[in-house]
Backbone:
């Protein structure tokens, strides 16, 4: 787990339309950032970002229209910090 305060929580910000959602996150300093989505078996479903980012607030749009309804986990990884949250996708 990460250091408290190292990054702010990653959250689903809003649904743009059916099957598309915005994931919002903040990073405090220049860092390599990875945001990925996994199914309940731990299989990687999508890599939403996997690159260096400057400090700031970011939003990623994920088109999940080709993914079946179910429980998924989205994960933010940066230098020294990992946060994973659960989401339920219903279509």
Residues:
């Amino acid at each position: 787990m990460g250091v408290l305060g190292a990054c702010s929580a990653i959250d689903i910000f809003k649904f743009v339309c059916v099957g598309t959602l915005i994931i919002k996150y903040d990073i405090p300093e220049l860092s390599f950032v990875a945001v990925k989505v996994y199914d309940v078996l731990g299989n990687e479903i999508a890599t939403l970002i996997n690159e260096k980012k400057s400090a700031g607030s970011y939003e990623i749009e994920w088109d999940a229209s080709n993914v079946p309804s179910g429980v998924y986990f989205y994960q933010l990884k940066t230098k020294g910090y990992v946060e994973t949250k659960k989401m339920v996708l219903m279509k």
